[in-house]
Amino acid sequence: MPKISLKNITKKFEKVVALNNLSVEINDGEFFIILGPSGAGKTTFLKVIAGLENPENGEIYFDGDSINNITTAKRDVALTFEDYSLYPHFTVFNNIAAPLKSSASKNKYNTKQIREKVDKIAKMLNINHLLDRLPSELSGGQKQRVALGRALIKEPKVLLLDEPLAHVDAKIRNQLRTEFHFLREKFQTTTIYTSHDYKEAISLGDRVMFLNKGEIQQIGIPEIIYNFPKNTIVALNVGWPEINLFDCSVNSKNSQLYCPKGDFVFNISGNILKLLEIYGKSEYLVGARPHHISFSEKPSDVYNLKAICGTSEVLDNQLVFYAKIKNLDLTILVNDPDLSLIYKQELWLSFDDQSLIFFDKETNENIKLKE
Q: Full-prediction pTM beyond 0.70?
């Protein structure tokens, strides 16, 4: 399977820059995730690799060989789109078999071989009982499996998956996510998978690239992307519920941070203070993940920040609630869906200073990644 290299790729659509001087290397056999919001350039990235779009600038390499002038049919890639793109008048069997009957594969497979390959893929994807149905008779999850089967049957060197789980419900999404783990082990194909869902990215990817407005924000293994987001754009988009961000100033003399919006101070440990002093600024943008804020219904030396409880909701077997300290709104996550909180009751909060993420207020970049 090829190693894919993109060097200084720029792709524009009139005045819109879809990919801006983008360079990245994707390893042989890697399951590479492109994570980002709508309009980030994810689909364009796949189309450029597939040869469906030509970049204005830059080079694309497979194992060191430029493929810019190689046609789509000869690149040995398979691309599945977000909307499935199934042939509506073809049965499931014929949709999956279509690549084996194309002009590029003409006379390469006889009828028996096509049947065997389709049956094998269909059983693997648990759609062998649907082979005689039309796409109109399938659920979203079944359509997605058919589209995936059509891509896999070519046994491509490169598999490009564009938001493959975007239009299926949560239950099917979780099931298909599990199946992708199996498929990646089975085929060992270099796979590039786009998603706007950080949970998919974290659970599936060998590495994740966060893309925003055609520019790479960060590339790394999932744990690094989550625990050490390079900037506030990545931090706000990776993690649920969304990270809390608020301004703080440093009081080195008292080893404290002061939050003007909440009008409170809290103590920080020596190693945190040293990090901030080395960086050399007095004000920072601080990120606190919702599950790193703890609370008590009674004040203590640890729980000494008075807050007012707002609304709460149970999501994914966890409780999310909102709290307010003066003019600072905070989101807090606890792994106890049965916890009973009363609207407007007093709570006392505590921050885990070792889990706080500090960003430069001017650049919005994580200061720890600039040591």
A: yes
